[in-house]
Amino acid sequence: MSLEFAIKGRAGTLSVEASGKLPDNGVTVLFGPSGTGKSTLLRMLAGLHACEGMIRFDDEAWQDEPAKTVLPVWQRPLGMLLQHPTLFHHLSVRGNIQYVQKRRGKGVNLEAIIEETRIGHLLDRAVHKLSGGEAQRVALARALVGNPELLLLDEPLSAVDLPHRESLLAMIQRVAQKVPVLYVTHSLDELLLLADQVWLMDQGRLTAQGPVTTALVSLTGPLAQRSDASSMLSGVCGSFDEADHLQTVLVDGAAFMVPLAQAKPEGALVRLRIAARDVSLCRVQPMQSSILNIHPVTVQEVTPTGAGQHLVKLALHSQTLLARLSSRSVRELNIMVGESLFAQVKAAALV
Ligand SMILES: Nc1ncnc2c1ncn2[C@@H]1O[C@H](COP(=O)(O)OP(=O)(O)OP(=O)(O)O)[C@@H](O)[C@H]1O
Known about the structure:
CATH 2.40.50.100; binds adenosine-5'-triphosphate; Mop_domain
């Protein structure tokens, strides 16, 4: 099931023009500054904001410019959660869920969705009596009850509190194993946890589309320029040291020690987040260091990033690590592309 489009339209004075193809499954995070057209693009794809051009979902034309076909929103097999959830105010929460279930929810596991979105206690409540976070959870449940073949989510967790956020993120990850999800967020944490692909948007245009690991370490891209710039490594859990609460995570065979309250099962696939500011470089292997994670790396790219700082892109086996160093250190160590160095990773966390 894949969505393909080449569309253009306007939102006030902003011209939005974008083309792309969503992967068949997984989460594609749409990321970019405020007011850059992310919500408008989602609304265009859903058929809620007029645009010109082509939108196809599998073999079906949702919009076909020469033939002027425009499939009505309600005939598009998608689940949607807009920035301001649009629930039916004349119906209760239960009524909202049942409305979609009757029309599109054949065979859906309603109990599981209600349980995972934690809305069981809200079912008889009037929609106008929901808090912002509760309304988002109900809107997400309603989107899932319709058996969507595509999910369009616009900051779905912006008003949701931390305890509920984790279960919803896990649910979105599970849904994304079967259907494509286009997910707008401002949160780097959500991007790191969820994204398989990242689409970067700026001033109404998609400026980059690719795997999350590449987007994070593109030195000229907006993610590497952030003060919390991070790289993400994929790893496999090994043993757990109960006494020190350290989880071994193998990244292409390189063992990282990660502090963790509880053991992960051996063999579990995990993502490690490493902030660029937590990585330093040495010419010789440090001995008797308090840093637990020290690995040989090769310098791939070095670039200044303003205010006396440099970003250094490093190959760690087949994966990429980002380091933010002072320009003085880069100059005094004379760090050059192609060199073999040792990276000291001060902090690594599971996402
Ligand atoms: N219906 C409309 N009429 C006029 N201007 C609009 C309309 N919808 C959006 N805009 C303007 O178009 C621009 C893009 O808005 P949009 O909501 O798509 O941005 P965004 O990237 O989703 O922003 P944010 O991250 O803040 O939600 C903004 O300047 C907004 O004020």
